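Work package 3, deliverable 3.1, input record:
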Amino acid sequence: MAKASAEEIAVWARAEAAKILQRPPERIDLDAKLSRLGLDSATAVHLMVMIEDWLGVELDPELAFEHPTLRRLAEAIAERLG
Amino acid sequence: MTADFAKSAQRGRDRSILTSPRIKRLQLLHFLVFDVAPIAGVIVAVVGWPRTEPSAVDLALFFALWAVTGLGLTVGYHRRFSHRAFDCGPGVDAALIVMASMAARGPMFSWAAMHRRHHERSDREGDLHSPNLFGASRLARLRGFAHAHFTWMARHPYPNAGYYIPDLLQQPGLLRWNRRYYVCVAAGLALPALIGGLVTQSWSGAASAFLWGGVIRLFVVEHTMNAINSLAHLIGDRPFARGADASRNLAWASIATWGEAWHNNHHAFPWSAAFGFGARQPDPGLWFIRALVRLGLAWDVKSPDAARIAERAEAEGAKEA
Ligand SMILES: [Zn+2]
Ligand SMILES: [Zn+2]
């Protein structure tokens, strides 16, 4: 699972965020700031850990804070995966 | 969610917290705005004295908002959400989150996750705000105090909500109010200015009420509550001394902290809604919960009975701290 496109990661992360936020995924804007979506630091960390587990890789935890939208986060992760 | 963590725990690193050496901009900004800037408000009040002397309206707003935010923190963030020491309906949950958020001590989820970690690791490695991990020399203790009281907030790692607060994440009503944290903080600053301005019909009245009911109130709430992290893990009585933590009771601070200062009691019985035990240990937070119960707004209030407390104190009290 260590290879995934930015698009795939974004879709998966959105589904996971939807679970945390208890909202349908289609109502979650990929370009909204994580904090705008309603994720605070603790829940953003939770999301990062879920993504790591899914991909089976360790990611720099800073990513969620440096790339604070789901789309930008997914792009940054895809880039790391190479 | 717990199952996910059992799975992930098999892999290398600690999944309960994300440690990062780099300071996150958001965290530092929050620290500067809500922890450092209020000091400027206190300086303004001192330097400008007696022109900055509070009016009766300012004092009323100061104490009212101190009560609202202090009770929100101890009864809401702490006893209800972090420890589930009593039960209540969604309306009271929402009110408690709004009240506490106005203290600008962080969103409830983050607060509760960090606090549960504090109980898990009390005064051992991983405790985010222990004053006792810097060494035994006088200088080390001073550094520990500064860290536990203030600077830890500018550079702590973030606990994983999925690990520490899965129960809270499952309640959609909580998230709805948790995400309005900054709106609540802003309301807590705008409200005194608005009321002060309306009552006195003047801009200077609004400014003075903002200073006392907003900025200085933030400062006072912060430092009284932070004393629980710092002083209440350094000095004071230890009737329950068996725990690995260094928690203490600070009787003199009990009223100003809404009961939080019975901190050794709290570490001994973290699930208890009562922090003060008996009539001789004033606990305004508990009085507030009892008032909610009388109004039919809260129920299932957990606390140890007197015999159990006495038994524990008898068994543990002899040991010197
Ligand atoms: Zn403690
Ligand atoms: Zn506690």
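The pocket of zinc ion (ligand 2) is lined by residues B 78, 82-83, 115, 119, 266, 270 (CB under 6 Å).
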